[in-house]
Each structure stands twice: as structure tokens, then as C-alpha cells.
């Protein structure tokens, strides 16, 4: 019985070492995924972060031109921003609207996303900047 327990403990420790060594630390990724599961901000941002599949509305395209802004900066709000649930419309059907806000070094950005769960489409509806620049009229 003691021999089986020692084999089990040795195998358990060896498997943890193998999972945690290397460029892709599977143990750390899994642990962080379990912790983030209970954070509602992370879950919403996970669904909004579609990368190249994100659609930009005509209003956003106009705002990007007017502010001389970049689409990557708008989507960067998903990495460092937080969801403002007070301003979001999360109970609308079939699509929900979420406001994600972030404070950058020299500006504050608020981005409105439209998420349709059935079609799994994410659209950037609008964004606003808190900078000393003329307002765009799109």
C-alpha cells in the first residue's frame, strides 16, 4: 500500500513539473483560467475579443478618420479596460451592448460594443475620447 502511494506521489510531482516547464506553461494558464472564470469582467471581455473578426460601424470609421486614431488602439481597451455594467445594456435581446472603458496615459477612452451571441458577431458601435481636441460630427 505504501509503495502504491509513493508511486502516485512521484507521478503526481513529475506530471506537475512537466506541465510547468517550457515556453507554454500549461499549469499556469489553466490556473489563471479557473481564477478568471469567476470574474464577470473577464468573461464578457473574453466574448468581445474576436480580434480580426470584429466589425467597425460607419460611425466608428468616421471617428477614426476625424481623430486620426487607430483600430488597434480601440481594441486595446479589451486588454486593459473594464466593463462598465451601469452603462451597459446587458438584458436586451438578441444582442447586448457593453461599454468598456480604459484610462490610457494621455486620454480616457470609452468603447461601445454590440455582441450578438447567436451569430457570435462583435461590432464596435461607437467610442468616445476625453482629449483636448475638437469634437467630430459624423
SSE map:
Blueprint: H1 2-20, H2 26-36, H3 40-48, E1 55-56, H4 58-67, H5 71-75, H6 77-80, E2 82-89, E3 95-103, E4 108-116, E5 121-129
Parallel strand pairs: 1-5
Antiparallel strand pairs: 2-3, 3-4, 4-5
Task: Walk me through what this model shows.
This protein has 138 residues and is an alpha+beta fold. The chain is built from six helices and five strands, in the order H-H-H-E-H-H-H-E-E-E-E. Strands 1-5-4-3-2 form a five-stranded mixed β-sheet. Strand 3 and strand 4 form a beta hairpin. The longest helix has 19 residues. The radius of gyration is 21 Å and the shape is elongated. The mean pLDDT is 83.
Helix-strand topology string: HHHEHHHEEEE
Mean of residue pLDDT values: 83
Number of strands: 5
Structural class: alpha+beta
Contiguous helical run count: 6
Strand order, main sheet: write it out.
Answer: 1-5-4-3-2
Q: Which stretches of 5+ consecutive residues score pLDDT under 50?
A: none
Distance between the termini: 76 Å
Shape: elongated
**What's the Cα radius of gyration?**
21 Å
Q: Into which percent range does the helicity of residues fall?
A: 40-55%
* Main beta-sheet annotation: 5 strands, mixed
Strand content: 25-35%
